[in-house]
Specification:
The protein is about 50% helix and about 10% strand. The protein has about 270 residues and is α/β, with parallel strands linked by helices.
Length: about 270
């Protein structure tokens, strides 16, 4: 039966509900839900048994991957209105990163080697947009991602031992394959918080990739952390296998204020 096709099968005596129930027994829930459409298409195309089996399995894999992607996206805690990397225009800044470099970062090879990325520069140049855009690419490719602004990360670390929600979040951050720490240097931190930050970076060193966005040049991190020895040890881990981009130019918000004009409140 080299050319066996579905039209040679008498499927009328086998209810689709029974077939779907059997698929669910083997936890093939996505295929079970779409089985009627799968069979109808297979009969129309006169697919072979092998092609039908392949379609069922590919449907299940695709469904599971999409479910995992949605779960990872939710767990990442991206900021509202996260924008895709393709929306970033390097022509809007004077220097710091090129389209070719962005395309290389999009390949995510640095993630597989636990490499880090540092986006430095003044506000309004798109550092967060670049970081979040790469995070979205990572989620779509099946990686786990966690995004936190530095100010909130410090709060989480402060109460992680006594607050269950904060402790759960911190554990998830440390386990993520990509950690995005946004706006380092915008708010001051004390010595204890600097130590906690160093501990977290040390625990994820060479097990996770980290993207840092900062308005401080690397040479200014000592002032932020308040301890030259601690800063040296931290930067030794941050800059190992790191790609650093120092963005320069005029704030996009200042160049295009019309995009950020507040709408009048409705009465």
């Amino acid at each position: 039966m080299n050319k066996s096709v579905l039209r040679n099968m008498d499927t009328g005596h086998i209810p689709i509900q029974r077939l779907s129930a059997l698929l669910e027994t083997f936890t093939l829930k996505h295929s079970a839900r779409l089985l009627a459409d799968i069979l109808e298409k297979a009969e129309k195309n006169q697919d072979s048994y092998r092609q039908l089996l392949l379609t069922i399995l590919e449907t299940e894999v695709s469904g599971r991957n999409e479910r995992r992607r949605k779960r990872n996206y939710s767990a990442a805690h991206f900021p509202p209105n996260a924008r895709q990397l393709e929306e970033f225009d390097p022509g809007e800044i004077e220097s710091g990163i090129t389209l070719s470099q962005i395309n290389q970062l999009k390949e995510l090879n640095w993630l597989d080697t636990c490499g880090n990325i540092v986006f430095a520069g003044p506000p309004g140049l798109g550092k967060t947009m670049l970081a979040v855009g790469l995070g979205l690419k990572a989620v779509d490719s099946g990686y786990t991602v966690c995004f936190e602004r530095m100010a909130n990360l410090v709060k989480i670390m402060d109460i992680a031992e006594t607050d269950r929600t904060a402790g759960f979040r911190l554990r998830n951050i440390k386990k993520a394959q990509l950690i995005i720490i946004d706006e380092i240097g915008y708010t001051p931190i004390n010595r204890g918080q600097a130590n906690s930050f160093f501990t977290m970076i040390s625990e994820t060193y060479e097990t996770s990739s980290v993207i840092f966005t900062t308005n401080k040049e690397i040479t200014e991190w000592t002032e932020m952390l308040g301890d030259p020895v601690l800063t040296t040890a931290l930067l030794d881990r941050v800059l190992h296998h790191a790609r650093c981009y120092s963005l320069k130019g005029e704030s996009y918000r200042l160049k295009h204020p019309e995009h950020f004009t507040r709408q009048p409140e409705q009465s």
